[in-house]
Structure formats: C-alpha cells, structure tokens
C-alpha cells in the first residue's frame, strides 16, 4: 500500500527582484528567497497534520537542486514606478496538531506590510475556524475574531510571511514573492 505524500516540515521564505524583463524579475525574487534552484509546484492551502515549521536554513539544507518542491506561493509584479505591491502567506494552526491547518495567499497592490500580514493571517484563521463550525461575522475586526477563535480552541496560532516593495523608480519590473515551502 502506498503512503500518500504528506510533508513533515515547512518553512517560510520571501524576496524581491528587479529587472528590465518581467520573468527575470520573478527569477531574481526566487533567488533572494533561496528557492530558484528547485522545480516549484504550487499547491493549495492545507497545512498538514503534525507538520513542523522549521527555519529557512534548515529546510533548504534538506532540498537538492532540481528537486520537485511543493509550495504555497504568492507573487505580485509591477513595472509602474513607485507602485506599492505585496505578496503574503498566512498560516493558521489548529489546537489539535493531529488536525490540518490552513495557509492563505494574497498578492496585490496598495497594502502595507502590516495590512497584508493581518489580511493573510485573517484569511487563514477564518478558513480554519469555519471548517470547525465557527460562525463568521466578516464585519468583526481581525483582532476580535482572533480572540474568539483562540477562546473556542479553534486556532492556536497564526503567522505570516509578507514581502512588500515599491515599483522601481525607473520602470524596471519589480516582483515581490512569499512562499511556504514543504519538505518531506
């Protein structure tokens, strides 16, 4: 019987790249993030049961160039001077480590690092809490909902990896990238 592939560890990474060509600015962001040498496969947003978060350095040490690597990734690109772009990954970990959690991703324009971080944490926590039966009032502030989720034992911890940048003043392509990278 085959055992399904379930990652045992995950790490966060992020980066910014600039170049006169769109694709090369994305490649530069991957290099800064330390993941350009892998064949990246984007997956949906489930944080596996029992998965541990490790440092980027520890996670990268377990991967080999050319390896197929699964990740949840967000990236935003612009060639508009001074335009604020951002990419973020949020994580919500359940109280019971034998249950799965959620990862969320967002990429867009105009959000500061703090606002993007709050957004992706809120999205991940909301997805997790609603799968556990919590009623969701979207008009309630994130800080309030976060306390409600914790008090009900639905979400123990949230976390975010966010990268923001302003578009290059000379119009070069600028890419922001954030990723949660799985390691088996």
Short description:
The chain has 184 residues and is of the alpha+beta class. The protein is built from four helices and nine strands; from the N terminus they run βαβββαβββααββ.
Low-pLDDT residue intervals, each spanning 5 or more residues: none
Name the CATH superfamily classification.
Pyruvoyl-Dependent Histidine Decarboxylase, subunit B
Output mean pLDDT: 92
CATH class value? Alpha Beta
CATH topology: Pyruvoyl-Dependent Histidine Decarboxylase, Chain B
Tally of separate domains: 1
Percent helix, as a range, is: 25-40%
Structural class: alpha+beta
Continuous helix count = 4
Radius of gyration using CA atoms only: 17 Å
| Neighbour order of strands in the largest sheet | 2-5-9-1-4
**Element-level helix/strand string:** EHEEEHEEEHHEE
CATH architecture: 3-Layer(bba) Sandwich
Annotation, overall tally of beta strands:
9
* Proportion of residues in extended strands: 35-45%
Describe this entry's structure for a reader.
This protein is of the alpha+beta class and 184 residues long. The protein is built from four helices and nine strands. It has helices at 22-33, 56-61, 113-131, 142-151, and strands spanning 9-19, 39-42, 46-47, 52-53, 68-78, 84-93, 101-109, 157-166, 173-183. The strands form two sheets. A five-stranded mixed sheet has the order 2-5-9-1-4. The chain has a four-stranded antiparallel sheet with strand order 3-7-6-8. Helix 3 (113-131) packs parallel to helix 4 (142-151). The longest helix has 19 residues, at 113-131. It is flat, with a radius of gyration of 17 Å.
């Amino acid at each position: 019987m085959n055992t399904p592939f379930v990652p045992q560890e995950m790490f966060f990474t992020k980066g910014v790249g600039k170049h006169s060509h769109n694709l090369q600015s994305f490649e530069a962001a991957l290099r800064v993030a330390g993941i350009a040498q892998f064949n990246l496969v984007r997956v949906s947003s489930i944080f596996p049961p029992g998965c541990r978060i490790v440092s980027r350095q520890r996670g990268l040490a377990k991967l080999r160039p050319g390896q197929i690597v699964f990740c949840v990734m967000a990236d935003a690109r612009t060639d508009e001077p001074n335009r604020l772009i951002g990419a973020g990954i949020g994580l919500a970990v359940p109280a019971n480590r034998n249950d799965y959690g959620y990862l969320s991703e967002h990429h867009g324009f105009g959000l500061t690092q703090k606002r993007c971080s709050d957004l992706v944490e809120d999205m991940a926590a909301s997805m997790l809490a609603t799968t556990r039966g919590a009623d969701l009032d979207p008009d309630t502030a994130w800080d309030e909902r976060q306390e409600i989720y914790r008090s009900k034992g639905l979400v123990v911890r949230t976390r975010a990896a966010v990268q923001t940048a302003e578009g290059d003043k000379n119009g070069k392509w600028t890419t922001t990238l954030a990723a949660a990278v799985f390691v088996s």
